[in-house]
Amino acid sequence: MKKLRRSARLVDMTQYLLAHPHTLIPLTLFSEEYGSAKSSISEDLSIIKEAFESQGVGVLKTVAGAAGGVKYIPQVNQEHSKSFMATLIEQLAKPERVLPGGYLYMSDILGHPTTLAQIGKLFASAFADQDVEVVMTVETKGIPLAYATAAYLNVPVVIVRRDNKVTEGSVVSINYVSGSSKRIQTMSLARRALPEQSRVLIVDDFMKAGGTVRGMIDLLQEFRATVVGCGVMVETADVSERLVDEYISLAKLNEVDIKEKHIQIELGSYFQ
Amino acid sequence: MKKLRRSARLVDMTQYLLAHPHTLIPLTLFSEEYGSAKSSISEDLSIIKEAFESQGVGVLKTVAGAAGGVKYIPQVNQEHSKSFMATLIEQLAKPERVLPGGYLYMSDILGHPTTLAQIGKLFASAFADQDVEVVMTVETKGIPLAYATAAYLNVPVVIVRRDNKVTEGSVVSINYVSGSSKRIQTMSLARRALPEQSRVLIVDDFMKAGGTVRGMIDLLQEFRATVVGCGVMVETADVSERLVDEYISLAKLNEVDIKEKHIQIELGSYFQ
């Protein structure tokens, strides 16, 4: 046991809390670690709480009682998120992003850790009260986004594969119809990858008609899971029949003029 | 401008530094943000530095002069890493992980954000001095690992695809021979995904003969990139001819007895 001064304790507790979001930490853990009275630890926590809230880092929830402690819940404020998304939308609207089929090139954005962390924190904030147990996505481009979200929720990621060549023991496969291309495709998940009756948040980078997300929802029924939410980064507006009802999007792609290379994109449903 | 007390500054600077690894932050940024003298900021930083070092969070490097500032370099100490890996190896050695072909089921481990963060920090520590500009991996299972590493290095991730159906504009594809199965396979990367002459760190979850990593190295030549390092989580020992010379592994799989479901695994080359 080492005896630490308040200043050193504050630094250390801050980094510990940030590294353990959505985790109930008993005050005794800190008081034993630092050889400090619980009352001092409580004072430290109220300093951290105030700083986190004023900087938009998140909230500290205190749970009283013998089984109590403190929990860091990552939260972004709506204003910060809007200005972040406005910048992102500006980037997304660049003409060189137009891809065949009306898709957008987004791999650079989906590869950038600071951007991903912000989007992940946004999704984690939006679904903070849903008791998410697992974040699910389908390979490939949604994976970094799912991981970023899961890091802030402190839950595991499960990745659905787009083939059935998965060599991971017993596998559940379903066929689904890609809503936009109308082709029949397969997605698979190893039986052991997801405990039955999990509470699952679906995350993906792009949604047109929603066939892929619909496929994931159907696949989840095989695992008797509950879909507690669905977050997509970009949705397209020109969809005659959406295959998914409940989801949030961060951006909405209204029009892609492939010939003129003009992109019309705005804030998504999360901000309405 | 808000005037903050030392205690609040410490919390805020700690979270800011943790969110911006490998980034030179001018002291003026903090002194202006908090309305504090540079001398006070310097004192704050020495408190944070000491706490980070004693807790194994990382080091703070101070760069003097007009263009100077402070930089947080994530670092794990060898002892912590060894005990973390020892626990991981225990998990990996469980008989139910044996898969056909002598592979191991690792998706649960590769889906867990705390575990991934620790492995990512380990790789980021190992290659901290290599001026890494991009982390590269090939889909699918290595992606979370690459992202975790990139987050600590604060550089983008580039994902090589296993097919050539990539609709991302001009694409570079190569054929490579999977070292263990001897099958010819294809991997592709969009031309615009990687600037020429980048310094690239390759990260993957599993290496047998090294055909996949060799393929990535060959692909990188097309981009005139420099491979500054290669980190794999698990390598297998029973390889007659390794196709890659320089790499670090965190664990070495010596033997998988498929019939008896016995796994013999130990610390990898990084710890030798």
Automatic annotation (TrEMBL), chains A, B:
One of its GO terms (molecular function) is DNA binding. InterPro entries: PRTase-like, PRTase_dom, Pur/Pyrimidine_PRTase, PuR_N, PurR_Bsub, WH-like_DNA-bd_sf, WH_DNA-bd_sf. The keyword Transcription applies. This is Pur operon repressor. Residues 5-74 form the Bacterial purine repressor N-terminal domain. Residues 108-266 form the Phosphoribosyltransferase domain. It comes from Brevibacillus fluminis. SUPFAM superfamilies: PRTase-like, Winged helix' DNA-binding domain. Pfam families: Pribosyltran (PF00156), PuR_N (PF09182). Transmembrane segments: none annotated. Keywords: DNA-binding, Transcription, Transcription regulation. NCBIfam families: purR_Bsub. Homodimer.
